[in-house]
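Record pair follows.
FIRST:
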Amino acid sequence: MANFNKVLLMGNLTRDPEVRYTPKGTAIATLGLAVNRTWSTETGEKKEEVTFVDVDVWGRQAETIGQYMSKGRPIFIEGRLKLDQWDDKETGQKRSKLKVVCENFQFLGGPKGNAEVSEQAPPSSRPPQRAGRPAPPAPSQEEAPSGEGEDNIPF
């Protein structure tokens, strides 16, 4: 039997990330994510619904998110679903909650506290990098094309 568990979410943080550490020293960040959906009814009325999702992030990625993210900031999360189950201490009833465990993420928007920068800055010629993977080194002046032979480009 085949299994597949993949979640892709893009939304805004509902609160500042909370970073804690396990007894062995592994970082874990808990995030609240709001994902909005808008649509129009048959009568043309605009509707909107918000889905709130709890996300757990582990290891170095948790520390990075804790350092750079804050309430209201946009983020893209790639992860998997996980069902947490426990017994309620007060009532003794079984409880459960569906969460997302982050496997990769990508920051969205501009630098912290300056959203206008992302709108005015020219787009990068490189594809965006995922957190946890080092960016390729920038070409040095000696490696950069000199502009010679640009007239021979076939397009």
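SECOND:
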Amino acid sequence: MAGSNFAEQAIHNGSCLCGAVRYQVRGALRDVVNCHCAMCRRLHGAFGAHSKAKKTQIDIVTDDGLAWYATSEQAQRGFCRRCGTNLFWQPVDQDATGIVAGSLDAPTGLKTLGHIFTAEKSDFYEIADELPCFDGSSDGGFDGDRL
């Protein structure tokens, strides 16, 4: 269609491991940023691969287990209380929500943009790609960071 943007009309689905939480994202997702902070290391085992969308674009389709945990004064994390799957990272001062990329149904059509909080990464792996790396936050340095 002339004048339409396919990405803005896209529908992305995702869920937890057991299916107690299913969600749908209407519209474009930000590509993936790998976060190597201490919290993501503990939650994901190495680093967190996160996409992002505006809060208003995300609909919870099945909510038989979604729970939120305030991990700091700046953000909370959404997870399935049944199977423990990490699903969301939600800062209190933004109108966007981070989405754990692995919880999205494939194909996602996403690519990895780069790495943040690399100064906190663990010592058991190396970042071997040529993507941009930030010791801390990217402070909006990636396309789509400021949704």
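COMMENT: Strands lie at 11-15, 21-26, 30-35, 48-54, 58-63, 66-70, 75-80, 86-91, 96-100, 112-116.
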